[in-house]
Amino acid sequence: MKNEPVRLGFVGAGNYTKIRLLPNFKEIPEIELVAIANSTEESSQRVANEFGFAEVISDWETLVKIPSIDAIVIGTQAPLHSEITLAALASGKHVFMMNAISATLDEARLMTQKAQENPDLVTMIFPSGRYMREDALMQKLLEDGYVGEIVQVMVHWQTPFFGLGGMYEIARRWVGEHTRIIALRSSLEKKIENPSGQLIQPTTNTVLGQLSNGASIIYVHTPTSHSYNRTRIEIHGTEGTLICYSPDEYQEGIYGAKTGEGEVQLIPVPAEMRSEWENPIGVPVEADFIATIREEKTPSPVIPTFEDGMRVMELGEAWGISARNSAWVNLPLSS
Q1: Which sign does the torsion angle of CA 51, 57, 61, 64 carry?
Q2: Residue 126: which residues within 8 A CB-CB, separation 6 or more?
Q3: Phi, psi at 158, each rounded to 5°
Q4: CATH number among 3.40.190.10, 3.40.50.720, 2.40.50.100, 3.30.360.10, domain 135-278
Q5: pLDDT along the chain (335 residues), means of 10
């Protein structure tokens, strides 16, 4: 599709789609918003009027079969993702969706299979959002052997919700496949006030895992937040340490130290990577999707494939099995 307009159909257009996806897609040259099918015809018409869709469609089943549409953007909740995606692929459409990939692991496996059977169609999932701008520098440091052989990884984050999948998506990209995990979930009886002033019953989640090289990885989630307890990923190896902080009011960026150097120091961003750091999200995901359809580039590694999304669902399934049985669970899970 080089040098041709890309014609989009949207299924679902909630707040995030209207705030983020649609404005960003509209900024891309030679994009046509062909049709929208939202939860109701009234809401579809409002979105069409605001963003300039040519047509309002009453149901997604009709929309995905419109011959003039090249790609389907799915902004619905996960339970509808599988059915819409399979119909879109069967109609020869590229697919871009919000995460998670699906509601169940079986659905994710089937979606991945169908995507692999249609290699000429671009299939992407919107990434978790964290560490997108930091990704290229971290990947380069690891590929250049900054830490040597990885020995231990620690992933720590604070959110009111668990959100293991998003952190695993990043860790798997940086340090590789996990071969087994064991999960611990515990709740305190006493309620506390969170930063928003709400009374919550703190539930902590800890996941211990093993990587394919034998190294250990630990995920630590807490719903409480303190200045000394910031979201970060630490990678410790035989020759050094890297710590990537999630941007906040205290510090941000990637810090590192080689063996014997003492305290970690902020690692400068190379000139060729500064454009990503100047972009608050790092990678313009929507533009990447369109450029891949046009065969102008290969997708950014921060954007999950369907297989990546399936692996996230698989980890969630393994976590549930482990938490219920207090036992190690091997990965990948058997089909």
Answers
A1: negative
A2: 21, 96, 97, 98, 99, 285, 303
A3: -125, 120
A4: 3.30.360.10
A5: 87 92 94 96 95 96 97 96 98 95 97 98 92 92 98 90 91 97 84 70 87 97 66 96 81 90 94 80 87 93 96 96 96 92
